[in-house]
Amino acid sequence: MQRDLEFDVVVVGAGLAGLALCAALRRTQLSVALVEGRPPEWPVGGWDARVYAVSPSSARFLDQIGAWAHLDSTRLQPMARIEVFGDRGAQLDFSAFDVGVGELAWIAESSLIARELWEGVKRQANVTLLCPAKPAALAVEGGRARLALEDGRTLDAALVVGADGVQSWVRAQAGLEARFTDYAELGVVANFRCERPHLGTAWQWFRPDGVLAYLPLPDGHMSMVWSAPEAVGRELLQYDAETLAAHVAAAGDHMLGRLEVVTPAAGFPLRLMQVPRVVASGVALIGDAAHAIHPLSGHGVNLGFADARELSALLAGLDRGVLGDLRALRRYERRRAEEVNALQLTTHALHELFRPQWPALSWLRNTGLKLTARVPVVRNALVRYALG
Ligand SMILES: Cc1cc2nc3c(=O)[nH]c(=O)nc-3n(C[C@H](O)[C@H](O)[C@H](O)COP(=O)(O)OP(=O)(O)OC[C@H]3O[C@@H](n4cnc5c(N)ncnc54)[C@H](O)[C@@H]3O)c2cc1C
């Protein structure tokens, strides 16, 4: 009979949240297993379709866990300024200079960060990487969690962390409820080469056909995220490269001149997911397993990094025997709840206010945007929201 493999912590899911948590546990005495179902695939040449606005606090965290300094700096774009447009000409802008910071965010490809974290965690002495491997059953009893894998191995640990994305298997096994609000929208992403320089500016347009964002990428490139009603999103995905480039250039007021597609469009369904309880005895959730948010905030991945930072700090200070203790884990839950709820509510409210299907709100939202631009308190609150 096979003996159980024993660990202090088992992390399921090697996305950015799971990898960051493992890397953050590097300086602890804890033994960690990382279980990932799919071996990673990195884009060969070209640009990754998925691009993030990494907040200054996420960049600091990535630095503390040893990843940031190793990222290829030629693929990192500081974002110095944001310009936001309403659907009736209202405008709001703010810059890093205005608020006395070096940059509002760093624009980076998902695979740039994931690859660095993956390579680091692979070499990390206290992490056993099990990939490809998938869990088949989870039981928590007498202060220990047992995770049976599909390949017949069993992992025994004080704590199992679900970092396995929005359809989290761990969350379902632990009986933690997830409430979904479907936006009936697609997030359509693509990258373009631009005729005019972006000077580190991001643009966002609240349009009748969705929210369109241009994020600056290095070397005269730009990443588009268009959160569009499903029918519009499907149409965008069907365009050939030339039609898409012309359409996106026109939708963005030709701000960057002529565009040329360098990464074809890809689409993702958009929804809000709220998880009222993100811990149970012997189980904790981080990243998209614990929350999903509309991409108009640009904060999904930042929330996942903050979860990893908070949970790793808690675990580092606990005795081995109580790592899965519900009272201890509730501290992590409480510390994260405020930020996650506030960001989810603000982003949801913004989305509802600018919902393309509600033209009656057009006056209110454009007036709101103009007022926000003029009232420093509100403006600063919005900047803090943008900085994460
Ligand atoms: C269109 C779109 C645009 C976005 N834009 C932004 C943006 O601009 N800024 C931003 O911050 N965020 C953005 N996001 C959100 C961001 O992509 C996510 O927040 C982030 O990728 C979540 O990371 P994660 O590690 O929690 O989950 P995931 O990246 O989903 O990783 C989960 C991992 O778990 C593995 N896994 C799943 N199930 C199992 C299992 N049963 N067994 C073993 N392994 C398993 C998966 O293979 C995967 O590797 C966007 C999302 C979308 C859809």
TrEMBL record:
It comes from the Bacteria. This is Ubiquinone biosynthesis hydroxylase UbiH/UbiF/VisC/COQ6 family. It holds the Pfam family FAD_binding_3. InterPro entries: FAD-bd (IPR002938), FAD/NAD-bd_sf (IPR036188), UbiH/COQ6 (IPR010971), UbiH/COQ6_monooxygenase (IPR051205). Its cofactor is FAD. PANTHER family: UBIQUINONE BIOSYNTHESIS MONOOXYGENASE COQ6, MITOCHONDRIAL. Belongs to the UbiH/COQ6 family. GO terms for biological process: ubiquinone biosynthetic process. Keywords: FAD, Flavoprotein, Monooxygenase, Oxidoreductase, Ubiquinone. Residues 7-341 form the FAD-binding domain. Gene3D superfamilies: FAD/NAD(P)-binding domain. GO terms for molecular function: FAD binding; monooxygenase activity; oxidoreductase activity, acting on paired donors, with incorporation or reduction of molecular oxygen. Pathway: Cofactor biosynthesis; ubiquinone biosynthesis. The lineage of its organism: Bacteria, Pseudomonadati, Pseudomonadota, Betaproteobacteria, Nitrosomonadales. The keyword Flavoprotein applies.
